[in-house]
């Protein structure tokens, strides 16, 4: 799944986004592109669950590849 994620600007943001998604699935694969403001993630969770988890951390997201 590919997401456009707002409010990411530094390594702390990368870590927070990664932790939020890996809390849904510890084996999740997460790749963050700060320059593009995009996150690619795969794991045992739905896009809606991922968006909700990111929003809880103040990183509003929308799916790009739906």
Automatic annotation (TrEMBL):
Keyword Transferase: no
Keyword Metal-binding: yes
Domain HMA: 1-62
Recorded GO MF terms: metal ion binding
Keywords from the named record: Metal-binding
Gene3D superfamilies: 3.30.70.100
Top-level taxon: Bacteria
UniProt-recorded name of the protein: Copper chaperone
Organism name: Thermomonas fusca
């Amino acid at each position: 799944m590919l997401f456009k994620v707002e409010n990411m600007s530094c390594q702390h943001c990368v870590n927070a986004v990664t932790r939020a998604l890996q809390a849904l699935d510890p084996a999740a694969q997460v790749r963050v592109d700060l320059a593009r403001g995009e996150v690619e993630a795969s794991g045992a969770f739905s896009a809606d669950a991922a968006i909700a988890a990111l929003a809880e951390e103040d990183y509003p997201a929308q799916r790009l590849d739906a």
